[in-house]
Specification:
It is a single chain. This protein is α+β, with helices and mostly antiparallel strands and about 550 residues long. Among the domains are: about 50 residues, no CATH class; about 170 residues, 2-Layer Sandwich (Heat Shock Protein 90), CATH 3.30.565. It is built from ten helices and 16 strands. A five-stranded antiparallel sheet has the order 2-1-5-4-3, sandwiched between helices. It has a five-stranded mixed sheet with strand order 11-13-14-16-15. It has a four-stranded antiparallel sheet with strand order 7-6-9-8. Strand 3 and strand 4 form a beta hairpin. The longest helix is centred in the middle third of the chain and has 76 residues. The protein is rod-shaped. The chain starts with a helix and ends in a 25-residue tail after the last strand. The C terminus is likely disordered. It binds adenosine-5'-diphosphate (ADP). The site of adenosine-5'-diphosphate (ADP) has 21 residues, from helix 8, helix 9 and helix 10.
């Protein structure tokens, strides 16, 4: 009991908190390290994606601006008549997305188009001319003093997307606006695929409009690893979104890792909570045990004091010679004998229990009858039973079963049970001790017709220092170690101890000892459960 208790205490109050701490620290460190590593990885993926998005957006801007530059170099305000001829010559090659080039005179009251060179003349040209003069010019940034820089207008008119490049020029005192009309559908269908669908690219790209509708490319599912950037100068209402193919994988990994982390955190939390519960329960149990121990000390002192004072009181009375009646003297002597007997038994119990607690108990297991031993123990209790006018019956229906048993220990167990029956079931008038055959075991049963055991106390009363509620309430003397000793003795023999209710009242305390099924040589032998054969427990 003692070694086991020390080991349990060590485990509960040192190893469990250490384990909980270790799990907590380990979970935190692992979590933080993996979190930091993942963050770094994610950051580098985002940075790589961003620089790719910048590159892709800038590339398109550059492509359009290069065409604009080509247009600008072809337009000579002083010689507008030759505009078509000059520009159209290399238009297909140099400015493939420019659909038309126009020159607008800004100072005229009507802001009229003074030159129009179209690659595919048709009715749309006229529509565009009207749109330009009536609406687009109002949306353009026009300077009082033209500096000649290139500007872009990217806007939707009547649900159609337009991109125009424009420059302001001053010539001969007149303000002119050169406009390059870009063919947006052509940009989408020819330029985007060329710029954004390179083979072997480790990225997926799409372009979305201001409302987030996909203009070009597939939907992207990189989650937080999709980086979007608006085109800086040309198609500035649109944005290009990029996601690395590895980022999609990464996003999946991140989702998986998050689930794993949550499971890990939950598990570590459970371990920590379980550890705390174990420690709290153990602490509560320790508190209860130390409270029980102090009650035990008080109970034992009381139990020792009461018979001692009786022995002393009646001894002094007899010594004083004032008791003349021989009956009275005999009665006093009987009291002295009874009380010293009780004192002896209590001391014996406490000593046995102390040995068990220290783990020093050793049983002298010999082969022999169980019935004999029980009968001897019952006889030892008979005088007390007679005095208390309780009938003590002994029944051994199956005969004297053979077992490996420590005679002294079995006697202690039976005496404790009979003593309890006499103590708690005084009103019962009958205590029956029975030795029975059951498969593989010999059962020793001590029944009384006393108050019985409440079901909730059935297990507890076999624990050391535990006393029943009834015993405490009715102030029955006791120390709470008798049944713990019975249980220990039964288990040391390879059996068990328990209590059953009796009908209509009372209880039957039972313990078992394994029967010998094969011939065993008598003498001191090792018990199967490990109790070493030695002399009966002695200090
Ligand atoms: P103690 O008798 O010194 O209190 P035990 O370990 O022998 O300690 O018994 C534990 C408790 O079991 C007792 O306090 C009592 O409440 C209950 N008990 C034991 N035997 C009986 C019995 N025969 N009838 C009723 N209650 C009993």
């Amino acid at each position: 009991m003692a070694d086991g208790t020390r080991r349990t205490r060590l485990l509960t109050f040192l190893l469990v908190p250490l384990l909980v701490l270790a799990v907590g620290v380990l979970a935190t460190v692992t979590f933080r390290t993996s979190f930091q590593l993942e963050k770094l990885r994610e950051q580098s993926v985002v940075e790589a994606t961003l620089s790719l998005a910048n590159e892709k957006a800038d590339r398109l801007d550059k492509l359009i601006v290069e065409q604009d530059d080509a247009v600008a170099s072809d337009v000579n305000i002083g010689d507008l008549d030759t505009l078509s001829q000059r520009w159209l010559k290399g238009a297909a090659r140099q400015t493939p997305t420019v659909r038309a080039v126009l020159v607008v005179h800004l100072r005229r009251p009507l802001r009229d188009v003074v030159a129009f060179a179209s690659r595919a003349p048709g009715p749309e040209d006229e529509t565009f001319r009207r749109l330009l003069t009536q609406r687009m010019l109002n949306d353009m940034v026009l300077d009082e003093e033209p500096k000649g820089g290139l500007r872009h207008l990217h806007k939707s008119y009547g649900g159609v997307n337009y991109l125009v490049s424009y420059w302001q020029r001053r010539h001969d005192g007149g303000d002119y606006l050169i406009v390059a009309w870009h063919d947006v559908p052509r940009i989408v269908h020819e330029i985007f695929p060329r710029v954004y669908s390179e083979r072997g690219d480790q990225s997926r790209i799409n372009v979305v409009d201001a409302e987030g509708r996909i203009v070009y490319g597939p939907p992207l599912s990189g989650g937080e690893f999709t980086v979007g950037r608006p085109f800086a100068t040309t198609l500035y209402k649109w944005r290009v979104n990029v996601t690395l193919t590895s980022a999609e994988e990464l996003a999946e990994n991140v989702a998986r890792r998050r689930v794993l982390e949550m499971v890990l955190v939950a598990l570590s939390g459970l371990v920590v909570i379980a550890g705390i519960i174990v420690v709290l329960v153990a602490a509560a149990r320790e508190r209860r045990l130390s409270q029980l121990k102090s009650e035990f000390v008080a109970n034992v002192s009381h139990e020792l004091k009461t018979p001692l004072s009786l022995v002393r009181m009646f001894g002094e009375l007899l010594q004083s010679g004032r008791v003349e009646s021989p009956e009275k003297r005999a009665q006093y002597l009987q009291i002295i004998v009874d009380e010293s007997e009780r004192l002896g038994q209590l001391i014996e119990n406490v000593l046995d229990f102390a040995r068990v607690e220290r783990g020093k108990v050793a049983y002298d297991m010999t082969e022999g009858g169980v019935g004999d031993v029980v009968a001897r123990a019952v006889e030892a209790c008979r005088m007390r039973a007679d005095r208390e006018q309780v009938k003590l019956d002994l029944l051994i229906p199956g005969g004297n079963d053979s077992a490996l048993r420590d005679e002294g220990a079995l006697e202690v167990a039976v005496i404790n049970l009979v003593d309890n029956a006499l103590k708690y079931a005084k009103s019962g008038e009958l205590v029956r001790v029975e030795v029975r055959h059951v498969t593989g075991y010999t059962e020793v049963r001590v029944s009384d017709c006393g108050p019985g055991i409440p079901p909730e106390d059935k297990k507890r009363i076999f624990e050391r220092f535990e006393r029943g509620r009834g015993a405490q309430e009715q102030k029955v003397r006791g120390s709470g170690i008798g049944l713990a000793l019975v249980k220990h003795i039964a288990e040391a023999h390879g059996g068990r101890a328990w209590v059953e209710p009796n009908q209509p009242r009372g209880s039957t305390f039972v313990f078992t000892v394994p029967r010998i099924q094969r011939p065993v040589r008598s003498g001191a032998v090792s018990h199967p459960l490990g109790a070493t054969a030695a002399a009966r427990p002695k200090d």
